[in-house]
Every structure is written in C-alpha cells, then in structure tokens.
Amino acid sequence: MDMLVVGAGEMGRWVARTADRPVAVTDVDAAVAERTATALDGVRAVPADTAETFDIVCLAVPISVVEEAVSRYADNAERAMCDVSGVMRAPVAAMRAALPERERVSLHPLFAAANAPGNVAVVADAAGPATDALRADLRAAGNNPFETTVEEHDTAMETVQAGAHTAVLAYALAAADVREEFATPVSETLDDLVTTVTDGTPRVYREIQETFEGADRVADAARRVADAEGDAFDDLYREASE
C-alpha cells in the first residue's frame, strides 16, 4: 500500500518517516522534494504535477492552501486521502466534496516533528482499511492517535494553540532584559516556552493565529489582571486556579 506525501517540509518529512510503506514525496519546490527523498531511505521524489496514482495521498501543506491541494490531488488518491495541515473544518469539507467514495481522515500531530512521537488528533470522516493501516503506523511509531470531531478539535485549538502562543509571545515582547540571576522558576519556564515557540517558522504560527480565535481572549484576560486591585485580584487568582 503506497503513499504520496504532498509537501516535503518538516511535517511532510515526519509523515514519510513514520509511514511503514513505500512513500513518494512532492513539493512545489522540486529541490525540497529531492532533498527529502535523498535524506530518507526508500523515499522517492515525484513532480508536483504528477499523474501517478497512490493508495493514499497525504497533504502536509500549509493551512492556507489545503483546500486547493485537496482538489489538485484528489485524482491521485486511489483509495484514501488524509491531511496533517492542523485545521479540521476546511480539509474535511473539501475532501468530502472531492472524494465522496474514498476514505478520508484528517490528522493533526500536536507537536513539532522534532518532538515526535506524541498525540495525534484524528477526525475519521470516512475510515477504512487504508486509513486504519496508516493509523496503525502512527501507533507503531509511539504516537497516540485519538479520535475527535471537527468542532471539538477546532475549538480546542483556540486555547491550546492560538491562545497559548499569544500568551507566550506577549510575555516575550513585554519582558525587559534582566540579569540571569534574577530568574525565577516561573520566568525560567516562560523563557523556555519562548524559545520553543520562536524556534519555529513564523508562517506556521501566523496561519494558526489567522485561522483560530483565542488571541483576543488572552488580551482581554491580561487587561483584567492588569486592572485588578485588592479583592478583585484575589478573585481573578482564584478563578485562574479553578
């Protein structure tokens, strides 16, 4: 059972490494696909406009182009299509429209590829043997695929991605340059989180912020804390602890 991975960036390379099957990769930048194929044993590169068909096509593309990619590569998918774009609503709807008779699964690895394995959110819109086998590959590599719904996933991302990233970046932007000796356990933890977030790619984080709500709620909460005095602060502290 072979697979085409569309997008040879960090997450596409992770998919290609994790899938226990013959894999081909493609990318809008042919040189990126070639480098990925060279770096990974048993992986080959194919042109972005390939007419070759595969049992599974997996889209490892940015959120902003995933719907276009579904349409472009639907004919290359003989049995199934999946995506690892990080959003559920748009790709699930696009795959349902473009591949009504084929298996369709949306996957969201909740980690950077360098931190794998980890939890993988799964919306199985139309599961079957091909996508079940792919999920088995994920489990065999130490990941934890867990089922969710489009609504639950996209709502959760407002907190665990858009909101969390906003809070971390806001701390980084607001922090003054102080001597290392002044570090506290809390500030050290926050500094580590800043390093984690800013060690990525700006475009990835930008697309998350543009796709999911959550940033404004963090900003509003920060203003509540900044404005709170006396008992009002105590109330907010207890609210946060709950």
Automatic annotation (TrEMBL):
<keyword id="KW-0560">Oxidoreductase</keyword>
<dbReference type="InterPro" id="IPR008927">
    <property type="entry name" value="6-PGluconate_DH-like_C_sf"/>
</dbReference>
<dbReference type="GO" id="GO:0008977">
    <property type="term" value="F:prephenate dehydrogenase (NAD+) activity"/>
</dbReference>
<dbReference type="InterPro" id="IPR046826">
    <property type="entry name" value="PDH_N"/>
</dbReference>
<dbReference type="GO" id="GO:0070403">
    <property type="term" value="F:NAD+ binding"/>
</dbReference>
<protein>
    <submittedName>
        <fullName>Prephenate dehydrogenase</fullName>
    </submittedName>
</protein>
<dbReference type="Pfam" id="PF02153">
    <property type="entry name" value="PDH_N"/>
</dbReference>
<dbReference type="InterPro" id="IPR050812">
    <property type="entry name" value="Preph/Arog_dehydrog"/>
</dbReference>
<feature type="domain" description="Prephenate dehydrogenase nucleotide-binding">
    <location>
        <begin position="24"/>
        <end position="114"/>
    </location>
</feature>
<dbReference type="GO" id="GO:0006571">
    <property type="term" value="P:tyrosine biosynthetic process"/>
</dbReference>
<dbReference type="InterPro" id="IPR036291">
    <property type="entry name" value="NAD(P)-bd_dom_sf"/>
</dbReference>
